[in-house]
Every structure is written in structure tokens, then in C-alpha cells.
Amino acid sequence: MKCVDDFRLKFGKGEYVPIVIGGMGVDISTADLSLEAARLGGIGHISDAMVPTVSDRRYDTKYVRDKLKQYKYNVANTDKSEVQFDLALLAEATETHVRRTMERKRGDGLIFINCMEKLTMNGPKDTLRVRLRSALDAGIDGITLAAGLHLGSFALIEDHPRFRDAKLGIIVSSLRALQLFLRKSARTERLPDYVVVEGPLAGGHLGFGLDWAQYDLHAIVAEIRAWLAAEQLDIPLIPAGGIFTGSDAVSFLDQGAAAVQVATRFTVAHECGLPPEVQQEYFKASEEDIEVNSISPTGYPMRMLKSSPAIGSGIRPNCEAYGYLLDANGNCAYINAYNRELALHPDEKRLRVMEKTCLCTHMRNFDCWTCGHYTYRLKDTTRRREDGSYQLLSAEHIFHDYQFSKDNKIALPAAE
Ligand SMILES: Cc1cc2nc3c(=O)[nH]c(=O)nc-3n(C[C@H](O)[C@H](O)[C@H](O)COP(=O)(O)O)c2cc1C
């Protein structure tokens, strides 16, 4: 019987343990978590979601405070078009985040950054260009283009000196999305180095509609693999979403996947950025406690715990401090939902907005408990303490469990 360790991910001359820890914004896949993956010979992701905010928390910068000070006069204004990101500061924050992480890298693995196109930041093209280029400048090993079709993203960096040496990949959930991307980026004469195929059981935003349950990851991977073979394109495929055991991973590797991308199992690692009390909520969850809803202002469905404080919260939009989801005209679906509710209940002290959520603020505060479908199985991966709480795991333990386990078994951690 095979285990994941019988396989290797090959990138050029490099060989890696074929386990990729997926990006989890905002600072859920921390630098510490990604560094563990790299130390153990695999691939870890940091995320560039809300990087100035993350930099403030980790590196004692004051980007959020200063931006809020600059735009304080606009807080009560429903028009947010004036609230702009300073591109030089955005570059500085991204470089700090990436450089500080890369300086600490040990071992033979790689560190990638997850970059979401849907973070339009009131200037989609300019802010994305800065984020991508600054990550390359600061020495990131690779960039995974996520949450969006990224039809123009390669063009934003094609004149960067590292465009052909850094690993560049894209996340898609359908063959059609991949075909669109390849057609649009053909002009740059550079194929992606890998394609993450994310199925409907993943955490975070989904590349499916609310009919997600009708799709199957194995089927999507098989369709994309057959098309690539017919086109004689050799691009490593990395399935993601619901791969919960080493044996699940082997089922994909055996069929030609280059690696697997996993995340949910690592949400209960010490190195994960979620606060310990939130990690206990993940452990406690049963299948009925998890839903896919439409409250993300991005327009993508998102999976989360039904008990997330973000659901129904009616806080005032916080775009002067954050504003990561403002479109090119300064709009966000939450602002509209909030204003409608405010007009209906002008005297209400605590508004409830059910339609959308202020995702920036709630992700920043770890109040939007996004999670993968199999979160309800996390309790089976650890020991329960006498007080009813669950033992957290080390990232190394989880990584090695994926790497070496057989027969769908999950190794429990040593008792505390
Ligand atoms: C808490 C959480 C946050 C996530 N955030 C992001 C994100 O910011 N960007 C992204 O591309 N994918 C995100 N994902 C998806 C993962 O990177 C990964 O592809 C997927 O969850 C793998 O499936 P699994 O969680 O069932 O192992 C997130 C997943 C989780 C569980």
C-alpha cells in the first residue's frame, strides 16, 4: 500500500514532498505555518490578503492607523471612492511580509504567496501589480494566483526580472477557467508552472455557485488532465479541497497529480493564525454547523461555521482603515447592504445586516470562521482533554501524518 512519501513533486531540478499547504488569508496561514512546510520539504503559502494590516500585527508598523487618520473625514460618507491605497506603502508592507518570512526559511521546501484578484482595493490593476512585483522583489519562491480569473496578471509582471525564474501558478475550479487563462496569457509565452484544481469541498471562497455539491474534484481533475494531454501541455496538476487523509492524497497522486494542496487539517495547528478559542470552535463543529452562504461581498460563495460572529453583524463599513474589497469605483456590496438596512432602521443601535458582511473587518478580527467541508472531522484527528477541549496539533505532526499514513488512518498526537 502506497503513502504520499512514495511520490515527489518535480519542479525543474528540484524535488519536493508533494504536500502544499494552501494560502489562508488573513494571516491564518502564517509565516510560521508556511515555514514548517518548507522545513519539512514541502511547500507552504503565506497570503497577501490585507498585508498592511498583517504587517502592523507582526512587524509593529502603523499602516492602518495612518490610513484611517488620513481618511477619517470620510468615515460617515457613503461614497468611498476617495479612499485610496498608497502604492509605495503597499509595496513596502508586502516586501516586509515576504522578506521577513524568506529570511527565516530553512530546509529544502518552498514558500509561495497566495494572491487574490478579488482584493480589488479601489484600484484593481495598480494594486495587484504592486503586490505581485513586490513579492517577487522580496524573493518569494512562487506566486499562486487565486480568487479570480487573473486574465491579465501575467502581463502585469512579464517585464519583471524574475518572471521566468519564480514559480507561478493559478487556482481554477473548472477546465473553462483554465482555458480562458491560458488563452489570455499566451502572449507572454509562459505557461503556469502548476495549476491548483480546487474542488467544491475547500475552505474560503469557492469557484462554484450554491450548487457546489453537484461537482466532484476527481471528475474535474480528470477532465483537465485529459484536455492537457490532448493539447500536449505538460503542466503539473495539484488537486485541492477535501483531501483529508494521506490515502485521499494518494488517490490523486496515483492518477498523475503532481502534489495535493491541503488546508483544513492545518487550521488546528499551533502555527496557524486562528486564535485558540476559535480553533476549539472548529474542533467542536458537526456537519450541520457548517454552511456555504453568499454573505461575502466578493460575490463568491464562501464556506463557514454558522456560528461565525460575522454572520448578521451590522457594523459600520470600515473602508477608511481597510477597504480591500472596494471596486474601481469605491463600491462594495456590504456598503450597499448596510445602507439599505440603515435606511429601514435609522434609530436602531445595533443593526443586523444578513445579506452581506464586512469581510475586511471580520477577517481581520478572526470573526469570519471560514473552513473546509471536512472541518467536522477535525475532532477525529486529536485527543480530547478532560475539560472537554481538544488538543492542538503541531504542523509537523499533521504534515507527517499526510506524508506517511496509509489505509485512511490518522495518527493522533502524543497525549499532553
Ligand atoms: C480557513 C481557510 C482560509 C482560506 N483562505 C484562502 C485564501 O485566502 N485564498 C485562497 O486561495 N484559498 C483559501 N483557502 C483554500 C485553501 O487554500 C485550500 O485550497 C483548500 O481549503 C484545500 O482544501 P481543504 O481545506 O479541504 O484541505 C482557505 C481555506 C481555509 C480552510
Under CATH, the homologous superfamily of the domain at 4-76 and 85-273 and 385-404 reads: Aldolase class I
Number of E-state strands: 15
Uncertain spans, ≥5 residues at pLDDT below 50? none
Biggest sheet details: 6 strands, parallel
- Determine the number of helices (DSSP H or I, runs of at least 4 residues): 13
User: Helical proportion?
Assistant: 25-40%
H/E element order: EEEHEHHHEHEHEHEEHEHEHEEEHEHH
Cross-sheet strand order for the largest sheet? 4-5-6-7-8-10
Q: Spell out which ligands are present.
A: flavin mononucleotide
Sheet-strand content, in percent, reads 5-15%
Q: In angstroms, what separates the terminal alpha carbons? A: 31 Å
Molecular structure report:
It is a single chain. By secondary structure, this protein is an alpha/beta fold. It has a domain of 282 residues: Aldolase class I (TIM Barrel). It is 32% helix and 14% strand. The longest helix is centred in the N-terminal third of the chain and has 17 residues. The two termini are 31 Å apart. The structure holds flavin mononucleotide. The site of flavin mononucleotide has 30 residues, from β5 and β11.
Give a quick summary of the entry.
The protein is built from 13 helices and 15 strands. With 416 residues, it is of the alpha/beta class. α6 links the parallel β6 and β7.
Distinctive features:
about 425 residues, single chain, three-stranded antiparallel sheet, TIM Barrel, alpha/beta
Layout of secondary structure:
Elements: E1 9-11, E2 14-16, E3 19-21, H1 31-39, E4 43-47, H2 51-59, H3 63-71, H4 87-103, E5 110-116, H5 124-137, E6 142-146, H6 153-157, E7 167-172, H7 175-185, E8 194-198, E9 204-205, H8 217-230, E10 237-240, H9 246-253, E11 260-262, H10 276-284, E12 290-293, E13 302-305, E14 312-313, H11 333-344, E15 352-353, H12 359-364, H13 395-404
Parallel strand pairs: 3-11, 4-5, 5-6, 6-7, 7-8, 8-10
Antiparallel strand pairs: 1-2, 9-13, 12-13, 14-15
The structure holds flavin mononucleotide (FMN).
